[in-house]
Amino acid sequence: VLCADPGADMNELHPLYLQRSQKDALEALQAEKAQRSSLQQTLEETEAAEEAAQDREALSLALASISDAIQTKRDEVRQK
User: What is the pTM of this model?
Assistant: First the structure.
């Protein structure tokens, strides 16, 4: 680890120290970008799962309604 002289002007920092600092900043930005990308993917997957659950619920209700209608028709036919 390179240490700057506490009394040194910031403009006089060693070039290797500056390169290391820039590299660290770049790595931090890349890590943040990867984390945001991962969070975005998780959000999209969650939204898709919620939409699929709503679709399943709607299909289940439609199937129950159709089953009730069929049973009602069967009951009507039996009563004749």
Answer: 0.58
State pLDDT tens for residues 6-43. 555 555 667 777 788 889 999 999 999 999 999 999 99
Phi, psi values for residue 20, rounded to 5°: -65, -40
Distance CA 54, CA 62 (A): 12
- Determine how many CB atoms are found less than 10 A away from the CB of residue 14: 13
Domain boundaries, the chain: 10-79
Residue for token digits 């240490």?
A: 3
SS3 16: helix
Whether 21 contacts 34, CB under 8 Å: no
